[in-house]
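subagent[fold] <- orchestrator: predict structure for attached chain, return tokens only, no commentary.
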Amino acid sequence: MLQVKGTEGYSAATERFMTATHKIAFQDLHQSFLKFIPTDSSNVLDVGSGIGRDAAALADMGHTVVAVEPTSEFLSAAQKLYGTSIEWINDSFPFLPSLGDRNEGFDFVLASAVWHHLDQHERRITLSRIADLLRPTGIFALSLRHDPAGVGTHIFPTDGQETVRDAERVNLKPLQVLGNQPSLVKGKRNVTWTRIVLQKI
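subagent[fold] -> orchestrator:
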């Protein structure tokens, strides 16, 4: 299994993470992304898939889903919870080597609550990698956490406008940038999010 710095702190909190995840529905957490998810059956990638809630919701919509998660405890839990209809992969940003070229490409890529675990250099590599994996007009939806740290201990400040500027350098144009979004987790009043939708041009 991978040893990824961004996963530090998560393995010891698997049960707590599972409980918190199941308290929030996919449709509530990703309400601002829903209109950008393809309605026809499509190839979808969920990176940092955690215990699989989002991947399962996307599969239930009729999509072919690849779920990438570097934390072995989460990946094991996801496979037990949601079965084999999803392709589960132990891998991580920024390079996603296990995906290879994926010549068929992805129509929609989701990265929820992982951006703050990447430094600026890794984020730029990630955006370039996603641009390569997306089909023309494909969508990349990501959420950026702002202050303070949660379970994960390897974190970096995030900036929505900086992310958009870096995305535009690799031909990903912004379709939506929503800043100062509140956390849906109880007791996280000091945590806000920026939710960004990018499209390959």
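orchestrator: received. Logging for downstream: Residues 5-200 form a domain with the Rossmann fold fold (CATH 3.40.50.150). Strands lie at 43-47, 64-68, 87-89, 106-111, 134-146, 172-182, 192-200.
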